[in-house]
């Protein structure tokens, strides 16, 4: 339900166009494919994904000797789903001692997502410790305190400007002492200063390797879904400096650009693991390609 209403703008953007094609064409020809292609591109699915989806659709139409455009809808939906099943989509951190590093530039919804994720994992019965390792932005610490309270989890903080790696060091000690299941770290994301960011992440990775080698490590990048192709560019840049294992795509409730989720899978081979569909603590959903595409078309 939440997913369907959260994606309503994207749905309106893609579905109305697609439906008019299926009903407006009487035969399957190049124009028909071109119209579909245009809608997918307008829907922010990106050139790569769109090309491969159309190719797959054409192949299916030929193999199954389909003549009626209306029969192509299901094939199109299946082709989109297929395009999204890449990368490691397992939520391995849920089943063992884990550290989740969350990175992302200011304003994308990083702190909010960390808070929501803390609440979600706690609800699953996990012992969660939050680390406020984004010490660059003073307000982030304050905000995280509120989220920690809301989620009912312990927060390890640092003074504004403190070394993020030292916060992670303290947080690891706390996680071990309390026998926590998950250490969730709100980490920086100053992409405009790539060298510093790289250095900072390297230090954090080094501490985790040395102090907490038994923990499974997940690095999630938070991207703002309303920024469409920009989000994709950011993901690419983060993947250059960190061992990114998944993506949290936020603000899908406020945008018609939700198709970017397809582009991310297709272009980067990094799975979207969670999506944000609102501002409250329960508005973070595990991503599932099947239900995502169904919510857009059914
Ligand atoms: P940060 O600077 O990346 O830590 O971003 P914040 O977590 O402070 O979020 C920035 C703004 O985006 C806040 O007003 C959040 O409430 C809002 N926000 C975050 N995630 C979502 C979402 O999934 N949907 C909507 N509508 N707003 C969101």
UniProtKB/TrEMBL annotation:
Catalytic activity as recorded in UniProt: GTP + H2O = GDP + phosphate + H(+)
Keyword hit for RNA-binding: no
Location of the protein in the cell: Cell membrane; Cytoplasm
Pfam family, one: SRP54
UniProt GO molecular function: GTP binding; GTPase activity; signal recognition particle binding
Domain SRP54-type proteins GTP-binding span(s) in chain numbering: 271-284
Keywords: Cell membrane, Cytoplasm, GTP-binding, Hydrolase, Membrane, Nucleotide-binding, Receptor
EC number: 3.6.5.4
Top enzyme class: hydrolase
Residues that bind GTP: 104-111, 186-190, 250-253
Membrane topology according to the record: Peripheral membrane protein
PROSITE patterns assigned: SRP54
Complex formation: Part of the signal recognition particle protein translocation system, which is composed of SRP and FtsY.
Physiological role: Involved in targeting and insertion of nascent membrane proteins into the cytoplasmic membrane. Acts as a receptor for the complex formed by the signal recognition particle (SRP) and the ribosome-nascent chain (RNC).
Family statement: Belongs to the GTP-binding SRP family. FtsY subfamily.
Name the record gives this protein: Signal recognition particle receptor FtsY
């Amino acid at each position: 339900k939440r997913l369907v209403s959260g994606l309503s703008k994207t749905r309106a953007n893609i579905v109305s166009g697609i439906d008019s094609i299926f009903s407006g064409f009487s035969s399957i020809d190049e124009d028909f494919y071109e119209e579909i292609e245009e809608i997918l591109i307008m829907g922010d699915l990106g050139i790569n994904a769109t090309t491969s989806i159309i190719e797959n659709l054409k192949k299916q139409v030929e193999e199954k000797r389909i003549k009626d455009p209306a029969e192509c809808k299901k094939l199109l939906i299946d082709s989109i789903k297929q395009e999204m099943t890449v990368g490691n989509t397992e939520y391995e951190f849920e089943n063992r001692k884990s550290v989740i590093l969350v990175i992302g530039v200011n304003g994308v919804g990083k702190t909010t997502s960390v808070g929501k994720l803390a609440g979600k994992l706690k609800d699953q019965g996990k012992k969660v410790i939050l680390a406020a390792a984004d010490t660059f932005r003073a307000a982030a610490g304050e905000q995280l305190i509120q989220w920690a309270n809301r989620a009912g989890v312990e927060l390890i903080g640092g003074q504004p400007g403190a070394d993020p790696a030292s916060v992670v060091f303290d947080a690891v000690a706390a996680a071990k002492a309390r026998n926590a299941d998950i250490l969730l770290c709100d980490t920086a994301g100053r992409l405009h200063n790539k060298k510093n960011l790289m250095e900072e992440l390297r230090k954090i990775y080094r501490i985790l390797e040395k102090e907490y080698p038994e923990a499974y490590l997940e690095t999630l990048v938070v991207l703002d879904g309303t920024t469409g192709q920009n989000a994709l560019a950011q993901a690419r840049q983060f993947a250059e400096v960190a061992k990114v294992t998944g993506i949290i795509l936020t603000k899908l409730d406020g945008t018609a650009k939700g198709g970017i989720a397809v582009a991310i899978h297709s272009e980067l081979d990094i799975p979207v693991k969670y999506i944000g569909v609102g501002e409250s603590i329960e508005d973070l959903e595990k991503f599932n390609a099947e239900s995502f595409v169904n919510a857009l078309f059914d």
